[in-house]
Amino acid sequence: MSKIKPYKDSDLSKKEQVTKMFDTxxxxxxxxxxxxSFGIDIKWRKKVVNLVxxxxxxxxxxxxxxxxxxxxxxxxTNAEKIVGLDISSGMLEIGKQKINKKGLSTxxxxxxxxxxxxxxxxxxxxxxxxxxxVRNFENLKNGLTEIxxxxxxxxxxxILETSVPTKTPFKQGYNFYSKHVLPLIGRIFSKDRSAYxxxxxxxxxxxxxxxxxxxxxxxGFINVEDFPQTLGVATIYKSSK
Length: 241
Description:
This protein has 8 helices and 7 strands, in the order ααβαβαββαβαααββ.
């Protein structure tokens, strides 16, 4: 797995660095996401919600929930309880404010915890989602193994993650945008100059498509499928237990 970290001159672990980074950029995160993705990330999350809704889950876990965008969107399903989990208290605080404004505080709980060591019993959740979070795991396989543990048999696991277009000229255009434009936007609008450089670099080396499918199968997930989005700049992965 990639050893790319947000702060190259820091001795902190990747997990500690990612926590620090998201705490720092939490105030800018939602607005920057809309700019960087041209708002298309909202459409991608809606597709994740639709996949989850087909399972009619009662208990849903959204890992790396950040400011709660996907957890809030999942409230449109028939779920009785949604848990948003993240290691960044800064992101969670903004998420809680958004949830309160929408009157969803009785349906959505925001939990500060480590996705690679979750405070839940085995076989707790009917559905688990992760949007743009698995590439930030310190150990991808440990994180996925922990997700498999808390997912109920027959439950659905859906990942939304960045990927790299494979066809010309989209591949070249994506590479230019991710290496030059995205970090520039981050430097201009964010308090953390390193954060969006890291997000760009980590996306470029993270396994995607069949490579990630095979890792999911190796961990023990079944019925693994992937659905590339918007010329391949993101991919939705669906699997089960």
